[in-house]
Amino acid sequence: MRLVQLSDPHVVAPGDPLAGQVVTLPYLERAIAAIEGLRPRPDLVLITGDIVDSGTREEYQLAQEALRRFTLPLFVLPGNHDERSNCRAALGNYLGPLEPGERLTYVVDRFPLRLVGLDSVMPERGDGRLGPEQIAWLDSRLSEGRDRPTLVALHHPPFEVGIGFMDRLGLTDREEFARVIARHPQVVGIVAGHVHRTIVGRAGGVVALTAPSTAHQIPLDLTPDGPETFVFEPPGFLLHEWDGTALRSHHGYIEDYGPRQPFS
């Protein structure tokens, strides 16, 4: 099974570039074309949040029109830039079988690797929180699927990433999350977004990864008080492969670097 993870498209209207510089929609369109061209074809695509930048209906309409180009099964999760009601209205077909309530949480059981999607959004805030009810829900859903290899997905990474300003905007209840994960050995991986970089960490003894953005990236600046900046490093994605025994993950670039060259 092959799952492509995209993250943080931050779709904005073409006339309103992000930070006055980034027209993000063409980047998402290029990402979709690149993923559709992968061979062997992936089994599904997951977008781990910040689908749009300001949460407006106009942005979601633009995102909806772009995402319709996918012929692959697609699932999305909300990020701190998303607005739940507008996301649900425009992208409800990509949210999986939602649980009752406000949060956009779901479980997808129809693939060899079970997918549990969490909602770490705190409205109008940059940091994230799952909350006691959702953590209890996660524990319950994992308990009922102990025989199913499982991938857990959310927007905010459940570990410190080492980039000062992003850690200050991290998951505030990651310790509680980690304690639940540690009780369920069938969890083979955790995937997140938010930090616009590929970073590998652990939570509850399980390998956790963050994905790059389809547009702009966060610089590799590990100084504790580094500035809040972005950089035009190459957009990318993660490709997670489950072979029935182990999960391995690849970082792929969306840019075109020319034809492949033989070694001899």
Can you give a write-up of this model?
By secondary structure, the protein is an alpha/beta fold. The chain has one domain (2-253): Metallo-dependent phosphatases (Purple Acid Phosphatase, chain A, domain 2, 4-Layer Sandwich), CATH 3.60.21.10. The chain is 22% helix and 21% strand. The protein contains six helices and eleven strands. Strands 4-5-6-7-9-8 form a six-stranded mixed beta sheet. Helix 4 links the parallel strand 5 and strand 6 (150-153). Helix 1 (25-36) packs parallel to helix 2, helix 2 packs parallel to helix 3 and helix 4 packs parallel to helix 6. The chain is globular. The two termini are 33 Å apart. The relative contact order is 0.16. The model has no long low-confidence stretch (mean pLDDT 97).
Strand order in the sheet with the most strands: 4-5-6-7-9-8
Average pLDDT taken over every residue: 97
CATH architecture: 4-Layer Sandwich
Q: Main beta sheet, described?
A: 6 strands, mixed
The first-level CATH class is given as Alpha Beta
> Could you state the CATH homologous superfamily?
Metallo-dependent phosphatases
What is the rounded Rg? 17 Å
Beta-strand portion reads: 15-25%
The dominant shape is globular
| Weakly predicted, low-confidence segments | none
How many helices? The count is 6
Domain tally: 1
Q: Count the beta strands.
A: 11
Order of helices and strands: EHEHEHEEHEHHEEEEE
What's the N-to-C terminus distance?
33 Å
What percent of residues adopt helix (DSSP H or I)?
10-25%
